[in-house]
Amino acid sequence: MFNSYEELSAYSAELVAGVVRQKEDAVLGLATGSSPMGLYEELIKLYDDGNLDFSKVKSINLDEYVGLDGTHNQSYRYFMDLNLFNHINIDKNNTHVPDGVAEDLQKGAEEYDELIDSMGGIDVQILGIGPNGHIGFNEPAEQLNLNTHVADLTQETIKANARFFASESDVPTQAVTMGMGPIMKAKKVILIASGENKAWAVKSLTDDVITTLIPATLLKLHSDVTVLLDRGAASQLDEK
Ligand code: GLP
Q1: Is 63 noted as a catalytic residue in this protein?
Q2: Do strands 95-96 and 149-152 pair parallel, antiparallel, or not at all (unpaired)?
Q3: Structural domains in the chain?
Q4: In the chain, N or C terminus with fewer CB closer than 10 Å?
């Protein structure tokens, strides 16, 4: 647990930098949203200071809204370019975000899984967490998908993400998201949670239960997960 989001972000960047320094062509699984913003700022600083080289790095993002192309300012491709890729020496051809406007979304999803396989899987997967425990857009459900798929967003998620759009009705109702498979197969997972609205989901990571109704709880089965919290996100955890 960190006293501030800034400290958390600096630490997360050192973890990611460690992976890239060990393997110059590392595959980074990346996430969007407010949680990893600080991480990306810190990675840019490391690059600017000459402490990190992304020239051989590859990236694969978790998800994209259906119906938004990369020029839409709320698309996740736009987010990644704006907040990270435009500021570092990564080759954009090595950066991948699902296509939310593919004519055949299902085919696009299958190709995305083939792409992940062809990259040899993910070396480090960055995750945020939804207030309802979703990861990527793997929403709470009786069953979860292993593979990339088109997901219907829950009302709660639409509400949570409405802050980025002019109105709630502008939030897409579907997304293309990586399934649980590549996330669980990632060699290392770093989950970042900041703010009190994540406290309930974070608490669910500490009990004895695994449930598809809180998808992030499946991470308890992964052998290398680092959960980074600020005070707000940790506020429902018992003091130990
Ligand atoms: C979004 C994204 C997730 C993200 C989560 C939390 O809907 N699909 O990948 O982790 O919700 O977002 P934030 O970090 O902005 O709270």
Answers
A1: yes
A2: unpaired
A3: 5-229 (3.40.50.1360)
A4: C
